[in-house]
Fold this sequence. Notes:
Layout: H1 2-19, H2 35-57, H3 63-89, H4 95-119, E1 129-131, H5 135-153, H6 160-177, E2 182-184, H7 196-212, H8 214-235, H9 241-248
Antiparallel strand pairs: 1-2
Helix pairs in contact: 1-2, 1-3, 2-3, 2-5, 3-4, 3-5, 4-6, 5-6, 5-8, 7-8
Amino acid sequence: MTAGNLLCGFFALWYIVKVTPPVGTDIPFDAGTITPALWLILGAFLFDALDGRIARLIGKESPFGLQFDSLADIISFGAAPAFLMQRVILHEFQEIGLIVASVYLLCGALRLARYNCLAMLPNSESKKEFLGFPIPASAALVASLTIFIIWLEGKEMTNTMWRWVLLSVLVFLSIMMVSEVKYPAFKTLDFRTRRPFTKFVVFVIGVTCLVVLWEYIVPVVLPIIFTSYLIYGFIRPKLSRKLRKEIEESEYEDD
């Protein structure tokens, strides 16, 4: 799974270089052509979400896996989105765009280094919560928001307002990755339930809606999900302990 994460990041970088015109040229560029690279970043996010869960399920967690995962993350969720934003979206800001993309990559690397240090401490809480916004979620938010903008505005992305939006989002995410805001890891959350029929019905309805309304749901719902997670870190301390437990933990965790 970690290898899948790493390869998705590599192919995203390769695809960006392949489809974008050389820097400094006036060759017309269709922003819609980068969509496969955006989906590769989201694919890396899916691999990253699954690899830790599978490792815990089969009892194969190890320091090697932790380090390998972080090396893959810095490519897929640090270098790939930063390079994509600078090459396609932020190049019009010239040096400012390059600086913002570089700061995003640097903050992502610092975020991963801090996580690794905390994860190796005795009685670490890293399995329950993250310190700072996770870099995989940050990259997924950037990718899904860009997909939404392309879907909304068209492949040309002529409205410069969206470039300012993405520039601001990248700056804010850079700050959040190295912040002290805590986010639930959801690593102990599983799909078991004491109400299997209810969950089955919800699952069927969700899959049906996804298949039927794929073209509309994915570009809209994904950025909403990742934005909600970003905002949740700010409102989480204000929630009651009981409500937080219901949202973040498995029904079977205390069994």
